[in-house]
Amino acid sequence: MSFNPTTIQGQGQPQATVTLAAAAPDGGALVVLKSDNPTVARVPASVTVSPGSHSVTFLVETATVVVRTTVTISASYGETSMTATMTVTPPALVASFAVRSRTRGAGACAVDSQSQELDCVFDASASQGFISTYLWTHTMGPATQRQTAAAPNAIVSPQGAGCPLYQQGTGGDDSNGDRYLRMEVTLQVRDAAGMVSDVVRQPVRVYPNRQCGFSY
User: Fold this and answer.
1) How confident is the model over 168-195, as pLDDT tens digits?
2) Strands 200-207 vs 108-110: parallel, antiparallel or unpaired
3) HSE of 37, CA atoms in CB hemisphere, 13 A
């Protein structure tokens, strides 16, 4: 007899197959199944290999887990028993974000005339997975600022900017003819086990608002 559970990411119903060394007899072969952690991976109490067949496939009902969890599944037929393991993994970490300025709208920031900080927010609430930390960077020219926020703070105001950062930027002109500085924002998300997502990035327009020595 052979038995082959698999690996499943997130919640789902993976298939497993029990294969007998010989064809099942008349009346079929009753194979008893058991999971050592049914709250994570639940199997039927038994499955029947049809007469003349060698194998039967069944579904394993899995739950969503926060950390990788290994479950042992056992199969018994007559005097023969064997076990196999399957690993249930958390949902994939996916970083996603938007940038919004209260004065310039989506994909933009403006330098506040009072604080000389950026008036936008970085919104990572569309990110997926069991996130413990949001890892931000904002880059202008050769200068990069890093910012870390602990969950559940998915929406943050950019910190660590200021005139020294803006003055590293290069300029462009938007569709209205307004001049802006180019900034790149990136995000990774990290879970409690230290796994990180791929990096996502997007360009952001920064309007100096005549601050930090800029004439526009």
Assistant:
1) 999 999 999 999 999 999 999 999 889 9
2) parallel
3) 14
Name the 3-class secondary structure at 109. Answer: strand
Place of tokens 């060698």: 54
The structure's pTM equals 0.75
Amino acid at 106: A
Q: Is 91 helix (H, G, I), strand (E, B) or coil?
A: coil
pLDDT tens string 190-202 = 998 899 999 999 9
- As given in the structure block, the two tokens for residue 166 are 């803006």
- Please give the Cα distance from 169 to 181 (Å, whole number): 6
Give, in order, the Cα–Cα distances in Å from 64 to each of 59, 68, 147, 177. Answer: 16, 10, 30, 50
Q: What single letter denotes the amino acid at residue 52? A: G
Strand pairing report for 15-19 and 2-3: antiparallel
The residue type of 3 is F
- Structural domains of the chain, ranges and CATH numbers in brackets: 2-89 (2.60.40.10), 98-207 (2.60.40.10)
pLDDT tens digits for 63-77? 888 888 999 999 999
- The three-state secondary structure class of 97 is coil
Quote the CA–CA distance of 129 and 88 in Å, as a whole number.
14
Q: Taking CA 160 as the corner, what is the angle to CA 158 and CA 164, rounded to the nearest 5 degrees?
A: 120
